[in-house]
Write a structure and sequence with these properties.
The chain is mostly helical and about 675 residues long. Among the domains are: about 170 residues, no CATH class; about 80 residues. About 75% of the residues lie in helices and about 0% in strands. A two-stranded antiparallel sheet has the order 1-2. Helix 26 packs across helix 27.
């Protein structure tokens, strides 16, 4: 079975089944045709605007929001709301869509386009003194943005936005350091609607300028055969080894991560092939699903796409995209290394074999059939590395996909395929676009009230209090209060990221939490790039962290396994993703482009992290070269942390402490071998 044996419609149906952000409602033929035309028009517009057009920033963002919100109200139902029940009769529907939703779609487009269509000088005059009609339109857009986000990604993010809005309005009632003077509704709408600090802010700007194009590129690249090339190469590389299909899942998901920034999309695309194959060779259902989910979440931390976070970092930190991608490289490799170790040990413990030779593709045949599909990705990466802007690289990557698709004799692209790919690419941006507009509301309140610095102060103060308590005991007093404050600040921020990421998209979590984390960690001397990556990594971890591990649950659906058990196993397999952020905070050299980088510090940090992650993998798996006893697992897991802490001294201490267990393992392995020979 291959990805290309599934039609685009079948792949879309799989994603709709397992990805809540793709749960589009069925429509009649007339609305369906209109939606298809609107989606393709959206794709063509963004391609033109980013590649060749000269469109004002506010107008470009307004057009993007109008497309997103208008289509969300047509394609996403109100679900279990009272209005959906009330308007279920045919009288209130038009071609399958409730009349109220069509009204909401029209209102969203009108409100989103009202301000951008005004002459720029008029807009500039009204900032700080909006007219009554401005406030009305801003209120409509605010309400419809929250409702669109609720429909497409769930209630968590809109609820967070509402809490922030209430905080802005009732600031004098806030406790302690969070208290502020408050604002009026007019002042709130002025900031969120009339300026570029709210709904029309950086988040939606990045979606419109960069992310949209990269999502379309990923869909087109997969359609012309790049996804199949990745899966086939992964099978060639790893399929014949012990537990082969699980290792194929790791490599194929790592490769797919270069063109897909979505954990769930990656899971269902490669998982349709790898999960059944893992079950076939003997992996338990929940383990097979967990491997695919954990490997697939790596797509969001794998260059060159990194979901949308890389482009947000470019805007926030004002550094080239190639520096962001360089910083992301080795942490991503450590994530996959951690999964590989545990998958390999599980295969050895269960005595699993590799895939049958007859089931493996032939290397030369794979390259001959699909080598053309690598050209668009090579062009995109080359343009980024040579300093071109991300949108420029994406535009020419898309052009290359179309050219290769029409020329390639295998997986040849037709006009119908191109239309469907553009439509599907635009569809994939709707939920994340609604989330970005809602995040703009949260960020707008943060800039209006200064709550980011206030919360940062609260985090640091709380962490310092913990440090004072812990540091008063021996041997904890070997570390300073400042060192303890940094550690506890990281723990508090990590917990906040995981909790918030359980209900909202990764990029939204990252944007919201970095508003708190960046000021807090800056107070403790952490570089901005490091702080941004720390928050980003823990936001991604939420995709495999119960109770709302969306990627793990999608994989469980394909495998037919228990979702919660799958989520717990996925978190265990992805433990490297929880460890690595602490590594690069204490040794920023791992990110390559940080201040004071040296190859010596990088080498020591990378080696220590690899040994430490491998040791923790051994502890979780309960197997090295022989089964480990319970005390040995705890011993190895605890003292592997000495390798993670960067430094030659800590690594030497770790070797001394773990060496006895290694010697016991050698003894036990010899005994097992002798027993096997005697039997």
């Amino acid at each position: 079975m291959s990805v290309n044996e599934l039609t685009p419609e079948e792949l879309e149906e799989i994603e709709r089944k397992y990805d809540p952000e793709m749960a589009f409602r069925p429509t009649g033929a007339m609305i369906g045709a209109f939606v298809s035309f609107a989606l393709v028009s959206m794709a063509v517009y963004h391609f033109y605007a980013s590649g060749f057009g000269l469109i004002r920033e506010l107008l470009h963002r307004g057009i993007h929001i109008s497309f997103v919100l208008g289509l969300v109200f047509i394609l996403f139902s109100a679900k279990k709301s009272s209005s959906a029940t009330l308007l279920s009769s045919k009288w209130y529907r038009f071609d399958g869509v409730p009349a109220i939703d069509l009204l909401f779609a029209f209102g969203a487009v009108a409100a989103a386009m009202y301000l951008p269509m005004l002459p720029p000088e008029i807009v500039a005059e009204r900032v700080g003194n909006p007219s009554t009609f401005d406030v009305v339109m801003g209120t409509i857009l605010l309400f419809l943005t929250l409702e669109a986000a609720r429909r497409s990604i769930g209630p968590t993010l809109p609820m967070i936005a509402i809490i922030f809005i209430l905080f802005a309005l009732f600031g004098p009632l806030a406790p302690g350091a969070l208290k502020h003077g408050g604002t009026s509704w007019l002042g709130l709408i002025n900031h969120l609607y009339m300026t570029n600090q709210g709904i029309y802010g950086i988040a939606i700007g990045v979606m419109a300028q960069y992310v949209f194009l990269f999502i379309v590129f990923g869909v087109l690249a997969t359609r012309i055969g790049l996804g199949q090339l990745f899966i086939d190469l992964a099978m060639v590389i790893a399929g014949r080894f012990a537990g082969g299909p699980a290792k194929v899942a790791i490599f194929s998901s790592a490769f797919m991560g270069t063109i897909s920034g979505s954990s769930i999309a990656n899971t269902v695309t490669t998982g349709a092939l790898t999960i059944p194959a893992m079950k076939k060779v003997g992996y338990p259902k929940h383990f097979a699903a967990a491997v695919e989910a954990t490997a697939s979440t790596g797509g969001q931390i794998t260059p060159p796409i990194l979901g949308a976070a890389a482009f947000i970092m470019v805007e926030y930190l004002e550094i080239p995209l190639r520096d962001i991608l360089a910083a992301a490289l080795f942490p991503a490799l450590l994530h996959y290394f951690g999964i590989f170790i545990m998958v390999h040990l599980e295969a050895k413990k269960l005595g699993l074999k590799g895939m049958d030779k007859k089931d493996l593709p032939k290397t030369l045949l794979v390259l001959r059939q699909h080598w053309l599909s690598i050209i668009p990705l090579a062009i995109l990466v080359y343009l980024i590395l040579t300093g071109r802007t991300p949108d420029y690289a994406a535009v020419y990557g898309i052009i290359a996909c179309v050219v290769v698709g029409f020329l390639n004799p295998v997986n040849r692209l037709t006009i119908k395929d191109l239309w469907h790919s553009l439509s599907m690419g635009a569809k994939n941006t709707l939920a994340v676009g609604a989330a970005a507009a809602t995040v703009g509301v949260v960020v707008g309140v943060v800039t209006l009230t200064g709550v980011g610095f206030r919360l940062g102060y609260v985090v640091v103060q709380t962490a310092t209090d913990f440090g004072n308590i812990i540091g008063s005991f021996w041997p904890m007093n070997f570390f300073t209060v400042t060192q303890w404050a940094l550690f506890f600040s990281l723990v508090l921020i990590a917990i906040a990221c995981i909790l918030m990421g359980a209900g909202i998209p990764t990029t939204a979590t990252y944007i919201i939490l970095v508003a708190v984390a960046a000021p807090a960690l800056a107070m403790l001397g952490v570089e901005p790039l490091v702080a941004h990556f720390f928050v980003f990594y823990y936001g991604v971890l939420a995709d495999i962290t119960p109770p709302v591990a969306l990627a793990a649950y999608a994989a469980a659906g394909i495998a037919g396994s228990n979702p919660f058990k799958t989520g717990n196993t996925a978190f265990r397999l992805g433990i490297a993703k929880a460890i690595v952020p602490f590594v690069f905070v204490y040794s920023p050299a791992l990110l390559l482009v940080t201040d004071g980088f040296t190859w010596a510090a990088f080498s020591i940090t990378l080696l220590g992290a690899m040994i430490g992650i491998a040791g923790i993998g051994v502890a979780f798996s309960g197997y090295f070269i022989a089964p480990l006893s319970k005390w040995q697992r705890w011993w190895v897991g605890l003292f592997s942390l000495f390798f993670v802490a960067p430094g030659l001294l800590t690594m030497a201490i770790g070797v001394v402490l773990i060496l006895p267990v290694i010697l016991l393992q050698v003894r036990d392995a010899k005994r097992i071998k002798l027993l096997g020979v005697e039997a």
